[in-house]
Structures are given as structure tokens and as C-alpha cells.
Amino acid sequence: MEIIILDTPEEVGLLAADVMARYVEQGATLGLATGSTPVGAYRELVRRHKEEGLSFANCRAFLLDEYIGLGPDHPQSYHATIRRELTDHIDIEDALVQSPNGLDPRHAHDYDRAITAAGGIDVQLLGVGTDGHIGFNEPGSSLASGTRVKTLHPRTIQDNARFFDSIDDVPHHVVTQGLATIGRARHLLLLATGIVKAEAVEALCEGPVSALCPASVLQYHPHATVIVDQQAASQLENAEYYRYAFQCKPEWQEI
């Protein structure tokens, strides 16, 4: 696992866009996340599409998760969110931007089959929750889990209430890619910014691999990149080494 510490959230977004753009140019299958952290990267990708001709026409995409009970037209569904933040502004075919079905979660496992049928995900963008969750794999999730229904932890509901009119409007259940599903992506790219993510970043990077911190499963992955800002890195014991290793990276070695 490569850990890259940058000064600001803006730098995190720019470097993430650099990595994603390399895959876009190859016509890759993208794994997309929603939430606040990826927004900077998405804005930069949209800019490169509009101003530099970066084309997504040969790409397809799969979302990590979806709220149960929210239809695709609901403004806080992830189906609608990813279109508002990214895919409506680029040249990817809309039908090739797939997400779990929050209105019929009984067939959640079919989502894994769809990903496999598409040849798997080349690069999966991830955020991390304050409790260490990725996707909506809350603490206690099986490290071998596939796409399935999960109940949200009250802390996650509280964290996500900012996107809704009221905390009472936040759904309590989701369909999420499982940790094993996420782990089958060829490259995992996790972003974290802000002091509120510092504890989770320390646990996922330097703590034991444990269901108590689902994101720690990235330690098992052969190609995982964690990009964080100074605040999110503030509890890392080996922060100076990570900075040194990144500065000394050979020019030919890609992230």
C-alpha cells in the first residue's frame, strides 16, 4: 500500500484526477464513489474533458452503493448524485454508468455478476468514513463480503445527514459492494481529507487488518494507493517515511 501525503485537499483532488485520467485514456472500467471527498477530483476531470479533450467515450462505470428506498430520480440517490457531479458533464454513455438497485435490493448479488461480466473494475475510487467504513461496509463487515444489503451505523447516518433536509430523511439501509467485491478491482485509490478522518486513516494504514476498521482490508491489496492531506495524516506514526518514499519515487514508477 502506497501512502501519499499532500498539503491540501485541492492537491489530493488533483493527484487523484491524474491517476484516474490515466485509466480514462485507456478506456477503463471505473469504480466511482460519492460523498464530499471525491468532488475535487471529479471537478478536475470535468475540466480536463471540457478544456483538454479528455474523453470518457470508451469507459464504463460502476458505483459503490445506493440507498434503499430512493429511486434514481431522487436528488440524494447516488444514481442522481454521480450524474450531477460527474457523468452528465462528460462523454460517457449514460447506460454504462451502473449502480445497485435501491428499489429492488433482493437481487443485490446480481451486481457482482454484472461487474464480472464487464471484465472487472480497473480502478476503484474510495473514500473512508470516520468509523473506517469504505462503501457502506460498516465496522463488523466480513472481509470476504460481496454486494449485499447493510444497515447503516448511527454515526454514518449522522455524518450523511448534511446531504438531507433532516436526519430523519436519511435512509437506514443501503445496497453496497462488499469488501471482497471492492478488493477485486485492479487498483484501489482511497482519498481522505480533514482532521475528522485522521483516526480512520491511522487505523486503515497502520492498524491491524480488522473488521473493526473495514478500510484496513486495503493492506491486503497488491495495488492500493492512499492519498491524504496533512490534517488527515496527522496521526500517522510513519508520516515522514511516507513523504520521503513519495519524494524518492523513480520517475518511471507510476502511482
UniProtKB/TrEMBL annotation:
Say which domain of life the source belongs to: Bacteria
Taking every annotated instance into account, which residue ranges of this chain make up the domain Glucosamine/galactosamine-6-phosphate isomerase? 25-220
Q: Which residues cross the membrane?
A: none
Pfam families reported in the protein's UniProt record: Glucosamine_iso
Write down the EC number.
Answer: 3.5.99.6
- Give a Gene Ontology cellular component term annotated to this protein: cytoplasm
Q: Name a biological process GO annotation.
A: glucosamine catabolic process
Q: What's the catalysed reaction?
A: alpha-D-glucosamine 6-phosphate + H2O = beta-D-fructose 6-phosphate + NH4(+)
- Keywords carried by this UniProt record: Allosteric enzyme, Carbohydrate metabolism, Hydrolase
Per the record, the similarity remark reads: Belongs to the glucosamine/galactosamine-6-phosphate isomerase family. NagB subfamily.
Provide the site residues for: Part of the allosteric site: 141, 148, 150-151
Q: What is this protein called?
A: Glucosamine-6-phosphate deaminase
Pathway(s) served = Amino-sugar metabolism; N-acetylneuraminate degradation; D-fructose 6-phosphate from N-acetylneuraminate: step 5/5
How is this chain's activity regulated?
Allosterically activated by N-acetylglucosamine 6-phosphate (GlcNAc6P).
Record organism: Corynebacterium xerosis
Annotated GO MF terms? glucosamine-6-phosphate deaminase activity; identical protein binding
Group of enzyme by EC: hydrolase
Q: What phylogenetic lineage does the species belong to?
A: Bacteria, Bacillati, Actinomycetota, Actinomycetes, Mycobacteriales
UniProt signal peptide: none
According to its UniProt entry, what is the function of this protein?
Catalyzes the reversible isomerization-deamination of glucosamine 6-phosphate (GlcN6P) to form fructose 6-phosphate (Fru6P) and ammonium ion.
